[in-house]
Amino acid sequence: MNLLRDIIMTHFGTNAVLCNGAYPADVPQILVPREQFEDVGWLMKEAGARLAAEWGVDETLFGRGFALLACFARDTEYLLVKCDIPLDDPTFPSLSKKHPTAFRFERQILSLLGLTPTGHVHSDLRPWIKHEDWPVDAWPLRKSFAAAERMPRVEGDYKWVKAEGEGVYEIPVGPVHAGIIEPGHFRFQAMGEDVLNLEQRLGYTHKGIEKRFEQLFWSDGARLAGRVSGDSTVAHALTYCRGVEALSGTVIAPRAAWLRAIMLERERIANHLGDVGAIANDAAFTFFFYQFMRLKESVLRGNQRLFGHRYLMDRVVPGGISADLPADGKVFIDGELATLLTEFERIVNIYDLNASLDDRLRSTGILTAEFARELGTVGYVARASGQPVDCRILAPFSPYDLIPPRMTVLNSGDVHARAWVRIEEVRDSIRLIRELLATLPDGEALTPLGAVPSDCSSFSVVEGWRGEIIYWLQSGPKGEVNRCAVRDPSSVNWLALEQAVHGNIVPDFPLCNKSFNQSYSGNDL
Amino acid sequence: MSLHPFVIELLQFALLLGLAPAFAGWVKVLKCRVQGRTAPGILQPYRDIRRLFGKDIVLAENASWLFRFTPYLTFGVTAIAAGIIPLISVDLPLSATADVIALVMLFGIVRFFTALAGMDIGTAFGGMGSSREMTIASLAEPAMLMAIFTVSLASNSTSLTQMVSVMAHSEFVIRPSLAFALAAFILIALAETGRIPVDNPATHLELTMIHEAMILEYSGRHLALIEWAGMMKLTLFFALGIAAFCPWGIATGGDTGLLLLAFVALSAKLVVGACVMVLIETGLAKLRIFRLPEFLGSAFLLATLGMIAFFILE
Prior knowledge:
heterodimer, A: alpha+beta, Cytochrome-c3 Hydrogenase, chain B, four-stranded mixed sheet, 17 helices, B: mainly alpha, 11 helices
């Protein structure tokens, strides 16, 4: 039962074809004619679906041209819509008229694959991710691109959004920041202390990850996926592995599924703890920062002791996990979580009682529910703005179908809400880990990976600590990696930050930014 | 043995120059302790200053004389203030040349030039910092004068040494006017020295900075001088508060024994004063910048109340 699929099939009739070889079966992939691709946009808009991702693929190895895929999501349903693009006319109808999220996706497709969005008069064709000092016709995601050769540098210019008038001034921040954070450029137009507009420019950490996937074996890709964004290494590796396992028909052992979930929740706890502390630190409430960092550190050390890596890097591998829980693991986690919860509640109590911190966090950086929905935000950003999205609950996989998480949805959309959603999620993750441990199955934790058939694709989605992570894998004519499209939650949530700072003052931006804490690396790929 | 007044004056300069970093270090140590961290040691500011003096200066190409001149002016003028504020003795010949209004103006000169230097290079952060600093100054300076005037009323003089002598020789009674003035003075001192909840001296976030944003482009010995002057200013504000509201123990003449005793008393008061400030800083988040007018407005109000209380009750 997939209503989104039915909407498309009813509208297009015989023009729409369900693709074969697209896994998993409950996420259908529909091929529609390119001329009518824009219809998909408004059909899905009317159905209330969000554009979760949009990406292109070079299918020349199959003797075909290019293809464009758009992923729509509504509640528990996901739908992929595909259109073929001939080699001699690399253009596609833009979805940006109905889905503002499409602007960056399509700019990225144009920059990296050389497919031009058409149709919508306001289309923004400035490069995205790829900077202007690369030749315009260097399209890394095309198969004809020579990845080994050195890229020539060219002169280029980037047109910023301008604001003019008496008293309006511009504050450029970054890409190199004073703190230990990733590089990204923010340009403010301000009037006194009031922010008129914020424009982001990312891409400074572009590493060609999607291209690199195509040169790796399926089994090795998990290591690369684990490095898309270092702080969500478990979530990314898990999404990739689930994709490969769907492609190869591998069914993992229950014990592996349970331990993967435990790792995912441990990653969530560690990052949420760090984030809440960092938010307080940006309001100069340093005491809180150090206390939360201490708790985060204890979780990281626990990871090291249990699985042999502080951030659990390379512990999730295709077919299962590479490090099983030690013999005393259950006892250790029980004790660790008990201490953690006690201390956590004590510190949260201080957060609750401190009026000066409260004053800074409340009504700062409000992202309205409307913007959160229109921009298709995911993760705690969406949940703090009244959007009930958590794919652990909406699109659950084992063991989340048996042990469901609780969803915390707040409506104020401010910095406090984003911090408080995290606090509630830490509590819930502790509960989840306890229940997972209590029901942990015995047995092997690694299953051999099956062979990947040729010309197939798989879609996988996992709720990382930052939000919904999407991977789309496609096997080539020989069963090799033809395309690995990655959508980190940051790709959509960064857009929401631009909207959340409107009406705020310049010195409150770091607080807003920290409450979002999106990944630069995951966005730049 | 009695020291010549000018020797005391020199002693005060030396004391401030030498001990300001230790005091700043002590504040840091306390802060670390309160937050459950290991402290770098009370001597860390000395090491920082030495490190900065050993470094080359990175100067923007379009920096004018103003930018290069400001650190020396800041350092010099702040040091001069040490000659006016009675730290260990009220027998200060320089004090006759400048009263408390001049003292506020001395800090005003430093702020004026620092704000100009902040804008001199032309970076967005510098201008932003200057604008914020001047906004705060325009609210803090009148409040500071009002608070000090309340003390002046009680001692019938705007000369600091005179004020201190009167206060030190009066009986200890809680006077409502002075209590109000002290509360106002604490708020102003937090603002003037750039501490939480007004400014965060330890932040790396340029967009939130006030004082730090103006001096962001400084490096090497310039930065060393500015940092050192900042530590002296912090110490001076404490000393000013101590002199105006709690001068007991200060020497009236040049007797070495009494001077020594005054030094011990001053140190003890500084140590305690730092504890109070650290507790305030740890317990509060930084105020949103548009709350500062309310914060400084209440300081002004408190100072005014102090003055009214003086006329009504005393």
